[in-house]
Amino acid sequence: MIYELFYPLKSHYSWLSWLNVLRYIPFRTIMATITAMLLTFVLAPWFIRELQKKQIGQVVRSTGPETHKIKAGTPTMGGALILLSLLLPTVLWADLRNPFVLATTAVTAGYGVIGYLDDYLKLKRKSSGGLAGRYKLLGQVLIGGSAIAYTFLATSKLPADWNEIKTHLAIPFLAFSKHSIDLPMGVYVPFAVFVVVATSNAVNLTDGLDGLAIGPVMINAGTYLIWAYVAGATLFGFSLATYLDIPKIASCGELSVYCGSIIGAGIGFLWYNTYPAQVFMGDVGSLALGGGLGMLAVCTKNELLSIILGGIFFIETVSVITQVISFKLTGKRIFLMAPIHHHYEKKGWAEPKIIVRFWIISILLALFALASLKLR
Description:
Number of helices: 16
Strand order of the largest sheet: 1-2
Low-confidence stretches: none
Number of domains: 1
Order of helices and strands: HHHHHHEHEHHEEHHHHHHH
Shape: globular
Helix content: 55-70%
Distance between the termini: 38 Å
């Protein structure tokens, strides 16, 4: 909005020539990050007090770790604050005519609504069961599918480079120009929707300890920020994406502003969500942030690399799947409790130790993913 409203003024008033700085994505990304951070810091104390007044507190599973019983009643649905602090700076500092920005923010907001309904039903029923899984999944598929369809159909608003590679699948650590796989439209679109939905639910499963999910979410967003900028950046008339042999998508750079907003909102939220948490994210935040990360993977053509980058989310999901399959087939559990972070709690690990070690692993995976920019 700021970009669209104020940037054109420099052409009409010479004394506003300094507005030329709005052209540059790095500047707007920094401003979006700062705006999101300040919004969260300023609004969080009031927001937490309102949640406490309305008695919107966490419902703890009776089968969960004993240490979680003290968390009962802690304000939840803090993800609503994250969404506000994420979406508003994106609207203010990003180019809203960009289809990638529109699609990604739409998924974030839409999945936030699904998460809100899930949290609301949990609180109303005073149980850990919220929105029925089939309805939650249906909503995620419809919203994610609509957003991806929009990026495929908005051909007049996107450069030719996207239309030429939109169904291509990049293979991590291999040159995109030589080793990408061009999938049929009927195969790629369902796969892309699966990536968005799976990432959303994976982040949701990871959100089980104070600050556990928001750390890797920010690390992933920071990695996608670099990737999105490089995919669309041109320096001195030379394309960085062409040099690195990664998917070249001119309009993709604008997603850096969205990524910066995630980082800023995440830092502000972590101030209050760090152990012991004053507020929990809830499904309204985890589903929305996961959906946003899934869209970033699709828009930057990092669908397969997202498995490495989001390795923490992937491991958490696999632990749940293997636990369920093992119990149904053999009647035995592989882990003391799933997702896997609860397994380590049951083994006696302190909650902060689990959180920090998972963050460290996430940082290592992000560095490994960024290394693929050059190792081709």
